[in-house]
Each structure stands twice: as structure tokens, then as C-alpha cells.
Specification:
Two copies of one chain form a homodimer.
Chain A lengths: L4 H14 L9 H8 L3 H13 L3 E4 L5 E4 L8 H9 L15 H19 L2 H9 L2
Antiparallel strand pairs in A: 1-2
The first copy, chain A, binds a DNA duplex (30 and 30 nucleotides) through helix 3.
DNA sequence: ATATTATAGATATTAAGAGTCTTTAATATC
DNA sequence: GATATTAAAGACTCTTAATATCTATAATAT
């Protein structure tokens, strides 16, 4: 199993937006170019981030996308959920109560997600900046 | 992202085989019926487990599949790797050295895998037995 | 009014997963 | 040795999700 490319693009975009001075707006054109993507495709991903409240969009001239002013401490998990939805890695197809296998898999998944929830984009942005 | 159904089937089959008295052979017919699968489809999955050395197969009358006599302490991760391959959840498409995002994702993935490596099928089988 | 930029919807393409069918090879039993 | 049984392998189909692309529409700044 793999995370989608979309998740990868979203994470890179978020860090890039975090690095903007004053967290000002950047157009999809520039964001797409940066990652060698078509603007229309990236905009689909960015709309998901917008709906999740992670970024804000303003149409029109001088518009674009910028980091949300209201949502702070955005984590890796926030971005993943926004792009991929809050689905589970594993679900037992044989629906018997309290499947022991599902229990183990779910526990492992939750630990991973808990870790990704504690990883904040801002920390990555700061690290990237200081390089 | 999701683990494949095949992984689910494989895990259930492994536990079932663990529960056999003397760990004797079971035919794909019975294993498939148990999970409401077609035998030919399940056999594809079982062949992967065989090649990975997790189970042993004997063709012919009274043949079937049984837990490997040589490989002990089979973990959840062993089964997952056998079925899905040892792929990574996340790979940065922009191939720059030491991508900070990839680092975070890889670390989280490794922790999860490390946990799944410590979860042994035999323990699940024992729990299931005592119910 | 015009240029710019995001959003939405329709559509096409590709890749992977899921599953079936048929043939071949190996083994046990008689 | 003949026969029945069972796994392995290969070709093939079907479905679904991801990955896009294109066009039209709505919102905003100048």
C-alpha cells in the first residue's frame, strides 16, 4: 500500500506556503511549476486543503493560496486526512465481532497516525529554512 | 491508502493453519470455503506465502498447506511483506537529497512496521483458541 | 470593463487490485 | 503403472481508484 502522489504534492505545497514571508498568497501557477505539475491538477488538491480549512484561497488578480490564519499547529496527519480522507488501512472482510487480527492492525495504524499527528509542518518549514 | 484484501485473507489463513492440531496440512478447498473465496484465487495468495517460506505446500492427494516447520515466530509483518512486497508507504517524487518530509513519513512508517514485526501470529492463534 | 485566478464538472487515461479459467506438474493410493 | 487429488503457473477479464486534462463559471483586484 502507498500514500497517493497527491498527498506528497500537498505536503510539499504546505511547507512551501509556510515559508512565504508574512504567509502571503501564492498562485497555483507558481506552486505547480515548483513541483513540475499541471496547474489544473494541483488546484484539485489545493481545493481539498481549502475545504479542510488548512489553507485559504482568494480568487482574482493577486489571489492564490495562503496558510490558514485560524488553524494553527497543522500536522502531517491533517494534510493526509484532507487529501485522502479519514479511511482505515485495514478492515476485516469477515465481519465477526472483535476480530483479533483487525485489532492488531488497527492498533498499529493508530500509533502511526498518532505520530503523524504530532509532527507539525511548521517544524519542517523551520528546519528547511535554516538549511 | 489501504492494505489489500489479499493481506487480510493471508492473515486469516495463517492463523487458521496455526490452529491445526499437529499443524497438519489443509487443502485450499477448505481454506477458501472458510473465507468464502474461490479456491483458485486464494491459491495465488498461498503460493506467495509458500515462496516466502511461511508455509509449506505438498501437491497431490492428502496434500495441502501447513505452517512452515523451519520458520518460527512468524509476525504480521512477515505476512504483509510476503503478500504485498516490501514497498514503502511514501516516496518523495521530487528527488532531492534528504527530503525532510520523506524523513518524517519514513520514520512513522518504520515505527509501525517495527510494531507489526513484534506481533506474532502464534499469540493471536492462542488467544483465538482460548475463546 | 478587463485581466486574473480559484472552483466545479465532465471526461479520458492509466495502473493496480481482484478474480476466473485452463493447463501442467507433483504426490498418494490402489 | 493407472488414477485421483492437489498445488503451481499463465493467460485473461473485470472493476476500481488514481492521475490527470479540458472547459466553463464565479469571484476579485485594478
Amino acid at each position: 500500500m502507498r500514500y497517493s502522489n497527491a498527498t506528497n504534492y500537498a505536503l510539499h505545497t504546505m511547507v512551501h506556503l509556510m515559508l512565504q514571508p508574512e504567509r502571503s498568497s501564492v498562485g497555483v501557477q507558481e506552486l505547480a511549476q515548483m513541483q513540475d505539475l499541471s496547474p489544473t491538477y494541483l488546484s484539485k488538491i489545493l481545493t481539498k486543503l481549502t475545504k479542510a480549512g488548512l489553507i485559504e484561497s482568494t480568487p482574482g488578480a493577486k489571489g492564490g493560496y495562503k496558510i490558514s490564519r485560524t488553524k494553527h499547529n497543522i500536522s502531517f496527519l491533517d494534510v493526509i486526512y484532507a487529501v485522502e480522507g479519514e479511511t482505515n488501512f485495514f478492515e476485516c472482510s469477515i465481519h465477526h465481532e472483535g476480530c483479533l487480527i483487525e485489532n492488531v492492525m488497527t492498533q498499529a495504524e493508530e500509533n502511526m497516525k498518532s505520530e503523524l499527528k504530532s509532527k507539525l509542518l511548521i517544524d519542517i518549514a523551520k528546519k528547511a529554512e535554516s538549511k
